[in-house]
Amino acid sequence: MRKDVRILLVGEPKVGKTSLIMSLVSEEFPDEVPLRAEEITIPADVTPERVPTHIVDYSEAEQSDEQLYQEISKANVICIVYSVNNKKSIEKVTSHWIPLINDRTDKDSRVPLILVGNKSDLVEHSSMETILPIMNQYQDIETCVECSAKNLKNISELFYYAQKAVLHPTGPLYCPEEKELKPSCIKSLTRIFKVSDLDNDGILNDNELNFFQRTCFNTPLAPQALEDVKNVVRRNMTDGVKDNGLSLKGFLFLHTLFIQRGRHETTWTVLRRFGYDDDLELTQEYLFPMIKMPPDCTTELNHNAYLFLQSVFDKHDKDRDCALSPEEVKDLFKVFPYMPWGPDVNHTVCTNEKGWITYQGYLSQWTLTTYLDVQRSLEYLGYLGYSIICEQESQAAAITVTRNKRIDLQKKQTQRSVFRCNVLGARGSGKSGFLQAFLGKNLQGQRRIREDHKSFYAISTTYVYGQEKYLLLHEVMPDFDFLSEADLACDVVCLVYDINNPRSFEYCAKVYKQYFIDSKTPCVVIAAKSDLHEVRQHYSLSPHEFCRKHKLHPPQPFTCSTTEAPNKDIYTRLTTMAMYPSSQPTCSLYSLTQRSVTRLCQLTHRLLARCSFPCLWLPLFLFLLHVFTLC
Fold this sequence. Notes:
The chain is an alpha/beta fold. It is 41% helix and 15% strand. It contains 25 helices and 21 strands. A six-stranded mixed beta sheet has the order 2-3-1-4-5-6, sandwiched between helices. The protein has a six-stranded mixed beta sheet with strand order 17-18-16-19-20-21, sandwiched between helices. Helix 4 links the parallel strand 5 and strand 6. Helix 9 packs across helix 10, helix 14 packs across helix 15 and helix 24 crosses helix 25. The two termini are 63 Å apart. The relative contact order is 0.06.
Protein backbone atom coordinates (compact mmCIF):
# COMPACT_ATOMS: atom_id res chain seq x y z
CA MET A 1 0.00 0.00 0.00
CA ARG A 2 1.18 3.53 -0.78
CA LYS A 3 2.67 5.54 2.07
CA ASP A 4 0.91 8.77 1.05
CA VAL A 5 -1.68 10.10 -1.41
CA ARG A 6 -1.43 13.17 -3.64
CA ILE A 7 -4.78 14.56 -4.89
CA LEU A 8 -4.93 17.17 -7.67
CA LEU A 9 -8.07 19.23 -8.36
CA VAL A 10 -8.51 20.57 -11.91
CA GLY A 11 -11.40 22.10 -13.85
CA GLU A 12 -12.71 25.23 -15.47
CA PRO A 13 -12.46 28.57 -13.63
CA LYS A 14 -15.22 29.36 -11.14
CA VAL A 15 -16.41 25.74 -10.70
CA GLY A 16 -15.41 25.81 -7.00
CA LYS A 17 -12.12 23.88 -6.78
CA THR A 18 -10.61 26.20 -4.17
CA SER A 19 -13.86 26.43 -2.22
CA LEU A 20 -13.99 22.63 -1.91
CA ILE A 21 -10.51 22.54 -0.38
CA MET A 22 -11.15 25.42 2.01
CA SER A 23 -14.50 23.98 3.09
CA LEU A 24 -12.79 20.67 3.90
CA VAL A 25 -10.06 22.34 5.95
CA SER A 26 -12.16 24.89 7.87
CA GLU A 27 -15.42 22.91 7.87
CA GLU A 28 -17.26 26.04 6.75
CA PHE A 29 -17.75 27.89 3.48
CA PRO A 30 -15.19 30.70 3.15
CA ASP A 31 -16.35 34.30 2.93
CA GLU A 32 -13.51 35.15 0.62
CA VAL A 33 -12.07 32.67 -1.85
CA PRO A 34 -8.52 33.21 -3.19
CA LEU A 35 -7.59 32.43 -6.78
CA ARG A 36 -5.74 29.30 -5.62
CA ALA A 37 -5.40 27.42 -2.34
CA GLU A 38 -1.93 26.53 -1.09
CA GLU A 39 -1.04 22.85 -1.01
CA ILE A 40 -2.23 21.30 2.23
CA THR A 41 -1.27 18.06 3.96
CA ILE A 42 -3.77 16.13 6.04
CA PRO A 43 -2.00 14.01 8.70
CA ALA A 44 -2.44 10.26 8.65
CA ASP A 45 -4.22 10.10 12.01
CA VAL A 46 -7.19 12.14 10.76
CA THR A 47 -7.75 10.35 7.45
CA PRO A 48 -9.97 7.28 7.11
CA GLU A 49 -7.22 5.21 5.44
CA ARG A 50 -4.51 6.30 7.89
CA VAL A 51 -2.11 7.72 5.29
CA PRO A 52 -0.90 11.32 4.86
CA THR A 53 -2.85 13.07 2.10
CA HIS A 54 -1.63 16.04 0.04
CA ILE A 55 -4.31 18.14 -1.68
CA VAL A 56 -3.18 20.37 -4.56
CA ASP A 57 -5.24 23.10 -6.23
CA TYR A 58 -4.88 24.33 -9.83
CA SER A 59 -5.59 27.86 -10.99
CA GLU A 60 -5.48 28.81 -14.64
CA ALA A 61 -5.02 32.45 -13.63
CA GLU A 62 -1.96 31.82 -11.47
CA GLN A 63 -0.26 28.80 -13.08
CA SER A 64 1.24 28.07 -16.48
CA ASP A 65 0.52 25.04 -18.63
CA GLU A 66 3.96 23.65 -17.76
CA GLN A 67 3.19 23.85 -14.04
CA LEU A 68 -0.10 22.06 -14.67
CA TYR A 69 1.69 19.28 -16.57
CA GLN A 70 4.15 18.85 -13.69
CA GLU A 71 1.33 18.56 -11.17
CA ILE A 72 -0.47 16.00 -13.34
CA SER A 73 2.70 13.87 -13.50
CA LYS A 74 3.06 13.96 -9.67
CA ALA A 75 -0.60 13.27 -8.83
CA ASN A 76 -1.86 9.89 -7.60
CA VAL A 77 -5.47 10.76 -8.31
CA ILE A 78 -7.04 13.67 -10.20
CA CYS A 79 -10.44 15.18 -9.39
CA ILE A 80 -12.02 16.88 -12.42
CA VAL A 81 -14.41 19.45 -10.95
CA TYR A 82 -17.40 20.77 -12.89
CA SER A 83 -20.41 22.83 -11.89
CA VAL A 84 -23.72 20.95 -12.00
CA ASN A 85 -25.47 24.12 -13.19
CA ASN A 86 -22.95 24.84 -15.96
CA LYS A 87 -23.25 22.64 -19.06
CA LYS A 88 -20.10 24.09 -20.58
CA SER A 89 -18.00 22.92 -17.62
CA ILE A 90 -19.49 19.44 -18.02
CA GLU A 91 -18.67 19.40 -21.75
CA LYS A 92 -15.08 20.45 -20.97
CA VAL A 93 -14.61 17.24 -18.94
CA THR A 94 -14.53 15.15 -22.13
CA SER A 95 -13.45 17.75 -24.69
CA HIS A 96 -10.49 19.12 -22.74
CA TRP A 97 -9.58 17.68 -19.35
CA ILE A 98 -9.63 13.91 -19.88
CA PRO A 99 -7.69 14.11 -23.21
CA LEU A 100 -5.19 16.51 -21.61
CA ILE A 101 -4.60 14.21 -18.63
CA ASN A 102 -4.30 11.11 -20.84
CA ASP A 103 -1.74 12.85 -23.04
CA ARG A 104 0.38 13.69 -19.99
CA THR A 105 0.29 10.27 -18.30
CA ASP A 106 1.75 6.91 -19.27
CA LYS A 107 -0.80 4.64 -20.94
CA ASP A 108 0.15 1.65 -18.77
CA SER A 109 0.02 3.53 -15.49
CA ARG A 110 -2.71 6.14 -15.81
CA VAL A 111 -3.92 7.85 -12.67
CA PRO A 112 -7.50 7.24 -11.54
CA LEU A 113 -9.98 10.04 -12.21
CA ILE A 114 -12.89 11.21 -10.08
CA LEU A 115 -15.62 13.44 -11.49
CA VAL A 116 -16.78 16.05 -8.97
CA GLY A 117 -20.08 17.84 -9.54
CA ASN A 118 -19.94 20.93 -7.30
CA LYS A 119 -22.70 23.47 -6.44
CA SER A 120 -25.41 20.83 -6.01
CA ASP A 121 -27.14 23.32 -3.69
CA LEU A 122 -28.02 25.49 -6.71
CA VAL A 123 -30.08 22.87 -8.60
CA GLU A 124 -32.88 20.48 -7.77
CA HIS A 125 -31.90 17.83 -10.28
CA SER A 126 -28.88 15.53 -10.49
CA SER A 127 -26.26 15.64 -13.22
CA MET A 128 -25.72 11.86 -13.11
CA GLU A 129 -27.86 11.23 -16.18
CA THR A 130 -25.37 13.28 -18.20
CA ILE A 131 -22.28 11.91 -16.41
CA LEU A 132 -23.05 8.15 -16.59
CA PRO A 133 -22.31 7.86 -20.35
CA ILE A 134 -18.99 9.59 -19.73
CA MET A 135 -18.12 7.13 -16.94
CA ASN A 136 -18.96 4.20 -19.20
CA GLN A 137 -16.78 5.63 -21.98
CA TYR A 138 -13.62 6.16 -19.89
CA GLN A 139 -12.26 3.27 -17.78
CA ASP A 140 -9.97 5.57 -15.78
CA ILE A 141 -12.96 7.22 -14.08
CA GLU A 142 -13.38 5.60 -10.68
CA THR A 143 -16.57 7.32 -9.56
CA CYS A 144 -18.58 10.53 -9.60
CA VAL A 145 -19.46 12.55 -6.51
CA GLU A 146 -21.98 15.38 -6.39
CA CYS A 147 -21.29 17.82 -3.60
CA SER A 148 -21.65 21.38 -2.36
CA ALA A 149 -18.81 23.44 -0.96
CA LYS A 150 -21.35 25.92 0.39
CA ASN A 151 -23.40 23.59 2.59
CA LEU A 152 -20.52 21.05 3.05
CA LYS A 153 -22.47 18.26 1.38
CA ASN A 154 -20.27 15.20 0.53
CA ILE A 155 -17.03 17.15 0.98
CA SER A 156 -15.30 14.61 3.26
CA GLU A 157 -16.76 11.79 1.13
CA LEU A 158 -15.16 13.31 -1.97
CA PHE A 159 -11.65 13.17 -0.52
CA TYR A 160 -12.29 9.73 1.00
CA TYR A 161 -13.18 8.39 -2.45
CA ALA A 162 -10.07 10.06 -3.84
CA GLN A 163 -7.93 8.30 -1.24
CA LYS A 164 -9.72 5.06 -1.89
CA ALA A 165 -9.12 5.33 -5.64
CA VAL A 166 -5.37 5.38 -4.96
CA LEU A 167 -5.14 2.89 -2.12
CA HIS A 168 -7.81 0.49 -3.40
CA PRO A 169 -7.96 1.01 -7.17
CA THR A 170 -10.63 -0.77 -9.15
CA GLY A 171 -8.62 -0.81 -12.39
CA PRO A 172 -6.32 -3.78 -11.64
CA LEU A 173 -9.23 -5.86 -10.30
CA TYR A 174 -12.27 -5.41 -12.49
CA CYS A 175 -13.30 -4.82 -16.08
CA PRO A 176 -16.52 -2.70 -16.06
CA GLU A 177 -17.31 -3.39 -19.72
CA GLU A 178 -17.27 -7.16 -19.23
CA LYS A 179 -18.55 -6.87 -15.66
CA GLU A 180 -16.06 -9.46 -14.47
CA LEU A 181 -12.72 -9.78 -12.67
CA LYS A 182 -9.57 -9.24 -14.69
CA PRO A 183 -7.36 -12.31 -15.42
CA SER A 184 -4.54 -11.10 -13.15
CA CYS A 185 -7.02 -10.67 -10.29
CA ILE A 186 -8.49 -14.14 -10.88
CA LYS A 187 -4.98 -15.62 -10.87
CA SER A 188 -4.10 -13.94 -7.55
CA LEU A 189 -7.38 -14.89 -5.86
CA THR A 190 -7.05 -18.46 -7.12
CA ARG A 191 -3.63 -18.77 -5.43
CA ILE A 192 -5.14 -17.34 -2.23
CA PHE A 193 -7.98 -19.88 -2.43
CA LYS A 194 -5.56 -22.81 -2.88
CA VAL A 195 -3.35 -21.67 -0.02
CA SER A 196 -6.41 -21.30 2.24
CA ASP A 197 -7.80 -24.70 1.19
CA LEU A 198 -5.84 -26.52 3.89
CA ASP A 199 -7.08 -30.03 3.02
CA ASN A 200 -6.93 -29.47 -0.77
CA ASP A 201 -10.45 -30.73 -1.38
CA GLY A 202 -11.42 -27.83 -3.64
CA ILE A 203 -13.76 -26.12 -1.17
CA LEU A 204 -13.37 -23.83 1.83
CA ASN A 205 -15.23 -25.41 4.72
CA ASP A 206 -16.39 -23.45 7.76
CA ASN A 207 -13.11 -23.88 9.63
CA GLU A 208 -11.08 -22.78 6.61
CA LEU A 209 -13.39 -19.81 5.98
CA ASN A 210 -13.09 -18.73 9.59
CA PHE A 211 -9.30 -19.07 9.49
CA PHE A 212 -9.26 -17.02 6.28
CA GLN A 213 -11.53 -14.37 7.81
CA ARG A 214 -9.45 -14.16 10.99
CA THR A 215 -6.22 -13.98 8.98
CA CYS A 216 -7.40 -11.13 6.75
CA PHE A 217 -9.73 -9.17 9.01
CA ASN A 218 -8.64 -10.22 12.54
CA THR A 219 -12.10 -11.50 13.43
CA PRO A 220 -13.99 -14.74 12.71
CA LEU A 221 -17.41 -14.82 11.13
CA ALA A 222 -20.42 -15.57 13.32
CA PRO A 223 -22.16 -18.84 12.34
CA GLN A 224 -25.21 -16.96 11.00
CA ALA A 225 -23.03 -14.53 9.00
CA LEU A 226 -21.22 -17.53 7.52
CA GLU A 227 -24.51 -19.06 6.41
CA ASP A 228 -25.66 -15.70 5.02
CA VAL A 229 -22.53 -15.49 2.86
CA LYS A 230 -23.09 -18.99 1.50
CA ASN A 231 -26.77 -18.28 0.86
CA VAL A 232 -25.87 -15.22 -1.22
CA VAL A 233 -23.59 -17.39 -3.34
CA ARG A 234 -26.20 -20.17 -3.62
CA ARG A 235 -28.80 -17.74 -4.93
CA ASN A 236 -26.49 -16.47 -7.66
CA MET A 237 -24.39 -19.52 -8.63
CA THR A 238 -25.45 -23.13 -8.95
CA ASP A 239 -21.97 -24.53 -8.18
CA GLY A 240 -20.70 -21.75 -5.91
CA VAL A 241 -21.32 -23.87 -2.80
CA LYS A 242 -20.41 -27.57 -2.65
CA ASP A 243 -20.76 -29.89 0.35
CA ASN A 244 -21.69 -26.82 2.39
CA GLY A 245 -18.34 -25.22 1.53
CA LEU A 246 -17.34 -22.36 -0.77
CA SER A 247 -15.94 -23.45 -4.14
CA LEU A 248 -13.38 -21.45 -6.12
CA LYS A 249 -16.19 -20.16 -8.36
CA GLY A 250 -18.13 -19.03 -5.29
CA PHE A 251 -15.02 -17.40 -3.83
CA LEU A 252 -14.41 -15.43 -7.04
CA PHE A 253 -18.08 -14.49 -7.26
CA LEU A 254 -18.01 -13.00 -3.75
CA HIS A 255 -15.11 -10.72 -4.69
CA THR A 256 -16.85 -9.71 -7.90
CA LEU A 257 -19.85 -8.77 -5.78
CA PHE A 258 -17.71 -6.75 -3.36
CA ILE A 259 -16.24 -4.72 -6.22
CA GLN A 260 -19.58 -4.17 -7.94
CA ARG A 261 -20.99 -2.84 -4.68
CA GLY A 262 -18.06 -0.44 -4.22
CA ARG A 263 -16.38 -2.51 -1.52
CA HIS A 264 -13.20 -3.17 -3.43
CA GLU A 265 -11.20 -2.33 -0.29
CA THR A 266 -12.33 -5.74 1.00
CA THR A 267 -10.67 -7.51 -1.93
CA TRP A 268 -7.56 -5.34 -1.57
CA THR A 269 -7.32 -6.20 2.12
CA VAL A 270 -7.24 -9.89 1.19
CA LEU A 271 -4.74 -9.38 -1.63
CA ARG A 272 -2.37 -7.32 0.49
CA ARG A 273 -2.55 -9.76 3.41
CA PHE A 274 -1.35 -12.43 1.02
CA GLY A 275 1.56 -10.30 -0.18
CA TYR A 276 0.30 -8.54 -3.34
CA ASP A 277 1.11 -4.99 -4.43
CA ASP A 278 -0.97 -2.56 -6.51
CA ASP A 279 0.05 -4.34 -9.72
CA LEU A 280 -1.05 -7.71 -8.30
CA GLU A 281 2.54 -8.90 -8.03
CA LEU A 282 3.91 -10.41 -4.83
CA THR A 283 6.08 -7.77 -3.18
CA GLN A 284 9.82 -8.15 -2.67
CA GLU A 285 9.32 -7.54 1.05
CA TYR A 286 6.91 -10.47 1.20
CA LEU A 287 8.97 -12.92 -0.86
CA PHE A 288 12.42 -11.95 0.41
CA PRO A 289 12.30 -10.90 4.07
CA MET A 290 15.56 -9.79 5.63
CA ILE A 291 17.70 -12.49 7.19
CA LYS A 292 21.18 -11.99 8.65
CA MET A 293 23.83 -14.41 7.41
CA PRO A 294 27.17 -14.05 9.24
CA PRO A 295 30.22 -15.65 7.55
CA ASP A 296 30.95 -19.36 8.13
CA CYS A 297 27.33 -19.98 9.07
CA THR A 298 24.77 -22.12 7.27
CA THR A 299 20.99 -22.02 6.94
CA GLU A 300 18.60 -24.80 7.87
CA LEU A 301 14.86 -25.24 8.20
CA ASN A 302 13.61 -25.37 11.76
CA HIS A 303 11.12 -27.79 13.30
CA ASN A 304 8.05 -25.63 12.58
CA ALA A 305 9.08 -25.26 8.94
CA TYR A 306 9.32 -29.04 8.55
CA LEU A 307 5.88 -29.43 10.13
CA PHE A 308 4.47 -26.92 7.64
CA LEU A 309 6.14 -28.66 4.69
CA GLN A 310 4.84 -31.99 5.96
CA SER A 311 1.29 -30.59 5.95
CA VAL A 312 1.80 -29.33 2.38
CA PHE A 313 3.02 -32.79 1.34
CA ASP A 314 0.11 -34.54 3.06
CA LYS A 315 -2.54 -32.36 1.43
CA HIS A 316 -1.18 -33.10 -2.06
CA ASP A 317 -0.37 -36.80 -1.57
CA LYS A 318 -3.93 -37.74 -2.47
CA ASP A 319 -3.31 -41.48 -2.92
CA ARG A 320 -1.45 -41.68 0.42
CA ASP A 321 1.51 -43.62 -1.05
CA CYS A 322 4.11 -41.39 0.69
CA ALA A 323 5.32 -40.16 -2.71
CA LEU A 324 4.36 -37.37 -5.09
CA SER A 325 3.40 -38.38 -8.60
CA PRO A 326 4.13 -35.89 -11.44
CA GLU A 327 0.48 -34.79 -11.31
CA GLU A 328 0.64 -34.26 -7.55
CA VAL A 329 3.88 -32.26 -7.89
CA LYS A 330 2.24 -30.12 -10.56
CA ASP A 331 -0.77 -29.53 -8.31
CA LEU A 332 1.48 -28.59 -5.38
CA PHE A 333 3.24 -25.95 -7.42
CA LYS A 334 0.12 -24.38 -8.92
CA VAL A 335 0.52 -21.56 -6.41
CA PHE A 336 3.94 -20.77 -7.96
CA PRO A 337 4.40 -18.56 -11.04
CA TYR A 338 6.79 -21.18 -12.45
CA MET A 339 7.84 -24.79 -11.83
CA PRO A 340 10.68 -24.56 -9.28
CA TRP A 341 11.93 -28.15 -9.59
CA GLY A 342 13.43 -29.42 -12.82
CA PRO A 343 13.87 -33.05 -13.95
CA ASP A 344 17.24 -33.21 -12.16
CA VAL A 345 15.45 -33.29 -8.79
CA ASN A 346 14.63 -36.98 -9.38
CA HIS A 347 18.39 -37.66 -9.34
CA THR A 348 19.10 -35.36 -6.39
CA VAL A 349 16.81 -36.94 -3.79
CA CYS A 350 15.32 -40.34 -3.05
CA THR A 351 12.52 -41.62 -5.28
CA ASN A 352 10.39 -44.76 -5.27
CA GLU A 353 10.49 -47.53 -7.87
CA LYS A 354 8.34 -45.40 -10.19
CA GLY A 355 10.76 -42.51 -10.01
CA TRP A 356 8.37 -40.41 -7.90
CA ILE A 357 9.74 -38.21 -5.13
CA THR A 358 9.26 -39.80 -1.73
CA TYR A 359 8.38 -37.99 1.45
CA GLN A 360 12.02 -38.20 2.54
CA GLY A 361 13.15 -36.97 -0.85
CA TYR A 362 10.68 -34.07 -0.72
CA LEU A 363 12.02 -32.84 2.63
CA SER A 364 15.58 -33.42 1.42
CA GLN A 365 15.04 -31.15 -1.59
CA TRP A 366 13.73 -28.38 0.66
CA THR A 367 16.71 -28.89 2.96
CA LEU A 368 19.09 -28.65 0.00
CA THR A 369 17.48 -25.44 -1.31
CA THR A 370 17.63 -23.83 2.12
CA TYR A 371 21.29 -24.77 2.56
CA LEU A 372 22.45 -23.65 -0.90
CA ASP A 373 20.17 -20.64 -1.53
CA VAL A 374 18.19 -19.46 1.47
CA GLN A 375 16.64 -16.56 -0.50
CA ARG A 376 15.17 -19.02 -2.98
CA SER A 377 13.80 -21.08 -0.09
CA LEU A 378 12.18 -17.97 1.43
CA GLU A 379 10.60 -17.19 -1.94
CA TYR A 380 9.19 -20.71 -2.28
CA LEU A 381 7.78 -20.64 1.27
CA GLY A 382 6.19 -17.30 0.41
CA TYR A 383 4.35 -18.79 -2.55
CA LEU A 384 3.06 -21.55 -0.28
CA GLY A 385 1.83 -18.98 2.25
CA TYR A 386 4.04 -20.08 5.16
CA SER A 387 3.82 -16.82 7.12
CA ILE A 388 0.02 -16.75 6.74
CA ILE A 389 -0.76 -20.37 7.55
CA CYS A 390 1.74 -20.50 10.42
CA GLU A 391 0.77 -17.00 11.58
CA GLN A 392 4.34 -15.73 11.51
CA GLU A 393 5.63 -12.28 10.65
CA SER A 394 7.52 -13.61 7.61
CA GLN A 395 9.16 -16.71 6.12
CA ALA A 396 12.34 -15.80 8.00
CA ALA A 397 10.72 -17.46 11.03
CA ALA A 398 11.21 -20.82 9.24
CA ILE A 399 14.99 -20.48 9.06
CA THR A 400 17.69 -21.32 11.58
CA VAL A 401 21.08 -19.70 11.02
CA THR A 402 23.70 -22.01 12.53
CA ARG A 403 26.54 -20.70 14.60
CA ASN A 404 30.01 -20.11 13.22
CA LYS A 405 31.79 -23.34 12.34
CA ARG A 406 34.87 -22.26 14.32
CA ILE A 407 32.80 -22.31 17.51
CA ASP A 408 31.72 -25.88 16.74
CA LEU A 409 35.36 -26.88 16.35
CA GLN A 410 36.34 -25.16 19.60
CA LYS A 411 33.52 -26.75 21.57
CA LYS A 412 33.95 -30.09 19.77
CA GLN A 413 30.20 -30.33 19.26
CA THR A 414 27.66 -29.06 16.78
CA GLN A 415 23.97 -28.23 16.70
CA ARG A 416 23.77 -28.44 12.93
CA SER A 417 21.65 -30.97 11.06
CA VAL A 418 23.00 -30.57 7.51
CA PHE A 419 26.56 -31.46 6.54
CA ARG A 420 28.23 -30.93 3.19
CA CYS A 421 30.61 -33.40 1.57
CA ASN A 422 32.44 -32.26 -1.56
CA VAL A 423 33.31 -35.16 -3.87
CA LEU A 424 36.42 -34.67 -5.99
CA GLY A 425 38.12 -36.92 -8.51
CA ALA A 426 39.31 -37.20 -12.10
CA ARG A 427 36.83 -37.59 -14.93
CA GLY A 428 35.35 -41.07 -15.06
CA SER A 429 36.51 -41.93 -11.56
CA GLY A 430 33.00 -42.79 -10.35
CA LYS A 431 31.91 -39.59 -8.58
CA SER A 432 28.44 -39.56 -10.14
CA GLY A 433 27.94 -43.20 -9.26
CA PHE A 434 28.97 -42.46 -5.68
CA LEU A 435 26.32 -39.73 -5.47
CA GLN A 436 23.55 -41.84 -7.01
CA ALA A 437 24.41 -44.82 -4.80
CA PHE A 438 23.61 -42.61 -1.79
CA LEU A 439 20.07 -42.39 -3.17
CA GLY A 440 19.84 -46.19 -3.38
CA LYS A 441 20.47 -46.49 -7.13
CA ASN A 442 22.77 -49.24 -8.34
CA LEU A 443 24.67 -49.07 -11.60
CA GLN A 444 21.75 -50.49 -13.56
CA GLY A 445 19.44 -47.76 -12.27
CA GLN A 446 22.00 -45.07 -13.00
CA ARG A 447 22.27 -46.02 -16.66
CA ARG A 448 18.72 -44.77 -17.22
CA ILE A 449 19.64 -41.20 -16.25
CA ARG A 450 19.66 -38.83 -19.20
CA GLU A 451 22.70 -36.57 -19.48
CA ASP A 452 20.59 -33.40 -19.45
CA HIS A 453 18.84 -34.60 -16.26
CA LYS A 454 22.09 -35.23 -14.39
CA SER A 455 22.47 -33.66 -10.95
CA PHE A 456 25.69 -32.59 -9.27
CA TYR A 457 24.05 -32.88 -5.85
CA ALA A 458 22.63 -35.74 -3.83
CA ILE A 459 21.07 -35.36 -0.41
CA SER A 460 19.47 -37.80 1.99
CA THR A 461 19.36 -38.66 5.67
CA THR A 462 21.79 -40.73 7.70
CA TYR A 463 21.75 -41.70 11.36
CA VAL A 464 24.68 -40.92 13.66
CA TYR A 465 24.33 -42.26 17.19
CA GLY A 466 20.57 -42.37 16.75
CA GLN A 467 20.31 -38.77 15.48
CA GLU A 468 18.88 -38.10 12.02
CA LYS A 469 21.16 -35.86 9.97
CA TYR A 470 21.26 -34.72 6.35
CA LEU A 471 24.34 -35.43 4.27
CA LEU A 472 24.69 -33.29 1.16
CA LEU A 473 27.06 -34.66 -1.51
CA HIS A 474 28.36 -32.22 -4.11
CA GLU A 475 30.22 -33.48 -7.16
CA VAL A 476 32.96 -30.96 -7.95
CA MET A 477 33.92 -30.71 -11.59
CA PRO A 478 37.55 -31.81 -12.07
CA ASP A 479 39.70 -28.74 -12.62
CA PHE A 480 42.90 -29.03 -10.64
CA ASP A 481 44.21 -25.67 -11.80
CA PHE A 482 41.38 -23.83 -10.10
CA LEU A 483 39.14 -24.83 -7.21
CA SER A 484 36.86 -22.06 -5.96
CA GLU A 485 36.05 -21.30 -2.33
CA ALA A 486 32.74 -23.11 -2.81
CA ASP A 487 34.65 -26.22 -3.97
CA LEU A 488 36.72 -26.12 -0.79
CA ALA A 489 34.06 -25.01 1.72
CA CYS A 490 32.58 -28.18 3.20
CA ASP A 491 32.54 -30.36 6.30
CA VAL A 492 34.19 -33.45 4.82
CA VAL A 493 35.96 -34.27 1.55
CA CYS A 494 35.76 -37.41 -0.61
CA LEU A 495 38.67 -38.07 -2.97
CA VAL A 496 37.45 -40.64 -5.48
CA TYR A 497 39.68 -42.68 -7.81
CA ASP A 498 39.01 -45.57 -10.18
CA ILE A 499 41.03 -48.66 -9.15
CA ASN A 500 40.88 -49.90 -12.75
CA ASN A 501 42.41 -46.70 -14.21
CA PRO A 502 46.17 -46.35 -13.57
CA ARG A 503 46.08 -42.55 -13.88
CA SER A 504 43.04 -41.92 -11.69
CA PHE A 505 44.66 -41.62 -8.24
CA GLU A 506 47.19 -38.98 -9.30
CA TYR A 507 44.46 -36.32 -9.42
CA CYS A 508 43.35 -37.12 -5.85
CA ALA A 509 46.92 -37.00 -4.55
CA LYS A 510 47.63 -33.63 -6.15
CA VAL A 511 44.36 -32.09 -4.98
CA TYR A 512 44.96 -33.28 -1.43
CA LYS A 513 48.52 -31.95 -1.30
CA GLN A 514 47.54 -28.64 -2.90
CA TYR A 515 44.38 -27.84 -0.92
CA PHE A 516 43.73 -30.13 2.04
CA ILE A 517 47.04 -31.29 3.53
CA ASP A 518 47.01 -28.46 6.10
CA SER A 519 43.23 -28.18 6.31
CA LYS A 520 41.15 -29.16 9.33
CA THR A 521 38.56 -30.63 6.98
CA PRO A 522 38.45 -34.44 7.26
CA CYS A 523 39.33 -36.30 4.05
CA VAL A 524 38.44 -39.80 2.91
CA VAL A 525 39.86 -41.62 -0.10
CA ILE A 526 37.31 -43.75 -1.99
CA ALA A 527 38.57 -46.66 -4.11
CA ALA A 528 35.67 -46.71 -6.58
CA LYS A 529 34.66 -49.56 -8.90
CA SER A 530 36.08 -52.06 -6.43
CA ASP A 531 34.30 -54.88 -8.26
CA LEU A 532 36.83 -54.46 -11.12
CA HIS A 533 40.45 -55.59 -11.31
CA GLU A 534 42.76 -53.28 -9.35
CA VAL A 535 45.72 -51.99 -11.37
CA ARG A 536 48.91 -50.27 -10.24
CA GLN A 537 48.51 -46.50 -10.09
CA HIS A 538 51.01 -44.34 -12.00
CA TYR A 539 52.00 -42.34 -8.98
CA SER A 540 55.10 -42.39 -6.79
CA LEU A 541 53.10 -43.85 -3.88
CA SER A 542 50.35 -46.42 -3.95
CA PRO A 543 47.00 -45.20 -2.56
CA HIS A 544 47.59 -47.20 0.64
CA GLU A 545 51.08 -45.79 1.10
CA PHE A 546 49.83 -42.28 0.40
CA CYS A 547 47.09 -42.60 3.04
CA ARG A 548 49.54 -44.06 5.57
CA LYS A 549 52.04 -41.24 4.95
CA HIS A 550 49.43 -38.51 5.39
CA LYS A 551 47.67 -40.21 8.32
CA LEU A 552 44.43 -40.79 6.46
CA HIS A 553 42.09 -43.72 6.65
CA PRO A 554 43.12 -46.41 4.15
CA PRO A 555 41.23 -46.19 0.83
CA GLN A 556 37.63 -47.29 1.26
CA PRO A 557 36.52 -49.82 -1.37
CA PHE A 558 33.23 -48.89 -3.04
CA THR A 559 31.08 -50.20 -5.85
CA CYS A 560 27.57 -49.58 -7.04
CA SER A 561 27.65 -52.52 -9.47
CA THR A 562 25.38 -54.66 -7.32
CA THR A 563 22.03 -56.33 -7.80
CA GLU A 564 20.69 -54.75 -4.59
CA ALA A 565 20.83 -51.14 -3.45
CA PRO A 566 24.45 -50.11 -2.68
CA ASN A 567 25.73 -50.27 0.87
CA LYS A 568 25.36 -46.97 2.73
CA ASP A 569 27.81 -47.47 5.61
CA ILE A 570 30.36 -45.14 4.04
CA TYR A 571 27.83 -42.29 4.03
CA THR A 572 27.14 -42.71 7.74
CA ARG A 573 30.88 -42.64 8.33
CA LEU A 574 31.22 -39.44 6.29
CA THR A 575 28.44 -37.79 8.31
CA THR A 576 30.11 -38.84 11.55
CA MET A 577 33.43 -37.38 10.41
CA ALA A 578 31.67 -34.14 9.43
CA MET A 579 29.97 -33.92 12.84
CA TYR A 580 33.13 -34.65 14.82
CA PRO A 581 36.07 -33.36 12.76
CA SER A 582 38.30 -32.89 15.81
CA SER A 583 37.84 -36.55 16.80
CA GLN A 584 39.18 -38.00 13.56
CA PRO A 585 42.16 -40.34 13.75
CA THR A 586 45.61 -38.85 13.37
CA CYS A 587 46.97 -42.29 12.71
CA SER A 588 45.67 -45.47 11.14
CA LEU A 589 46.10 -49.14 11.71
CA TYR A 590 48.80 -49.06 9.06
CA SER A 591 50.89 -46.61 11.06
CA LEU A 592 50.99 -48.61 14.30
CA THR A 593 54.61 -49.33 15.15
CA GLN A 594 55.95 -52.48 16.79
CA ARG A 595 56.52 -50.46 19.95
CA SER A 596 52.85 -49.41 19.93
CA VAL A 597 51.71 -53.01 19.61
CA THR A 598 54.03 -54.03 22.46
CA ARG A 599 52.61 -51.32 24.69
CA LEU A 600 49.11 -52.44 23.78
CA CYS A 601 49.91 -56.03 24.72
CA GLN A 602 51.36 -54.89 28.07
CA LEU A 603 48.23 -52.88 28.80
CA THR A 604 46.03 -55.85 27.94
CA HIS A 605 48.12 -58.12 30.17
CA ARG A 606 47.88 -55.77 33.16
CA LEU A 607 44.12 -55.55 32.79
CA LEU A 608 43.74 -59.30 32.55
CA ALA A 609 45.93 -59.79 35.61
CA ARG A 610 43.06 -58.34 37.60
CA CYS A 611 40.53 -60.52 35.82
CA SER A 612 39.86 -64.22 36.42
CA PHE A 613 38.61 -64.90 32.87
CA PRO A 614 41.57 -65.64 30.52
CA CYS A 615 39.14 -66.29 27.67
CA LEU A 616 38.62 -62.50 27.44
CA TRP A 617 42.20 -61.91 26.28
CA LEU A 618 41.58 -61.84 22.55
CA PRO A 619 38.33 -59.78 22.59
CA LEU A 620 39.91 -57.28 25.00
CA PHE A 621 43.03 -57.00 22.83
CA LEU A 622 40.96 -56.37 19.71
CA PHE A 623 38.82 -53.81 21.52
CA LEU A 624 41.86 -51.90 22.79
CA LEU A 625 43.43 -52.13 19.36
CA HIS A 626 40.31 -50.49 17.87
CA VAL A 627 40.35 -47.73 20.54
CA PHE A 628 44.08 -47.16 20.03
CA THR A 629 43.55 -46.82 16.30
CA LEU A 630 40.88 -44.16 16.76
CA CYS A 631 42.72 -42.09 19.35
